[in-house]
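Next comes a single protein record:
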Amino acid sequence: MYAVIDIETTGGSSRRDRITEIAIFIFDGSDIVDSFISLINPERSIPYFITRLTGITDQMVAHAPRFCEVARKIVEITENITFVAHNVNFDYNFIRQEFMRLGYDFRREKLCTLQLSRKMVPGLRSYGLGNICKELGISIDHRHRAAGDAVATVKLLDHLLHLQASFETLGTHKKTIPPELELVQRLPETTGVYYLLNDKNQAIYIGKSLNIRERVRTHLMQNNTRRAIDMKNATVNVGYKETGSELLALLLESHEIKRLKPLYNRKQRRTPAHYGLFTASDDAGYVNLLIDKTTRDETPLAVYPNKMAARNHLFYLAEHFGLCQKLCGLYHTQGACFQYSIKVCGGACIGRESQALYNRKVMNAISSLSNGSDNLFIIDKGRHGGERSVVKLEHGKYRGFGYFDPNVVNGDPAQLNDCIRHFEDNRDVQQIIKLYLRQQKVEKLIRF
């Protein structure tokens, strides 16, 4: 099932602008089986050039529902269904941002008909909705209105799915294979860190993956951005280090990016924590969790590289421990939070849940942020069946990692310590380890 969606907005920025119209058609691969279409009051004026493009005026949306009034319908009609749009990230990010303003974490699987068109119908000058539909003989009624564009996208999706099925049946559909294919074929299909190398054998990009071969293949097939094309063209060799454990891959990737400073890892070279998680009690005695800059005098419960990472983790804590998003600063309203209206929040925001019960939930969430011990060996998978990996934390600080044979090393801390290769501690690796432990992915913890 596919939820084919199109929106109209007041502009191009999901952070600054708002939705003015939405159309959703539920497509089962053969027919449209459900739909939802509505103008949306953006609670701001619509720029003149947008009105000229879409025909949507301030008068048309003045009495339309606000996004919060149609949010439940959007959640319900798209639940467990793939979110489809032409240039899907535009529509998806706008809708996610609208939900974030309500304190709700909207997530769906995505499918982009623009990217699928590039794959199935190569060689066109443009893959905009108007051009691809013209090339395929698909008519668009009411262009630049949500319903008209969404119906055209349904027709396009139907055409592409049939085209894909035909190619697969005939065995004629081939992916574009880059000339660097031989670089990919020799790579392992295992967990580890990979290095894209230039003609001077310098690392221009470093990444980690659970399947090194497939991830590198993906990089070398990318043609959708200038950056991706430049990086692919500059790659003449690929190096790798198998780690076995995903945790070690994350730690090694972080270390290597900081050490080698690859050209195409600019955003990952240095990610200092600027935001922290703190507590404060309100007048009613409820313990609130809040995000603030780490320049505060008090020590944060956790640190994050940016505000978005902090908000995402706080959303996770709220969902996992049943916390109120309003009392976590994730939802701003005078009354009950949105989660309470869908029976997810217990009602601490309006005094329906007792202070004692709610505060116990908060304490449980805070306890989950701790590693449980300042001195800890984290045991996880090795690079093959007869090996295990080990990460060492001492007095809460990361000391490094290594490997051992469980038939020789029996878990004695002194023996494990001899296996450790020293690495520098920093905020990034602290966050990597804490998040990994929260997800309970490791095989065993040994305290010393």
Summary: The chain has four domains: 2-170, 181-268, 275-367, 376-447. The chain has 16 helices and 16 strands. The mean pLDDT is 87.
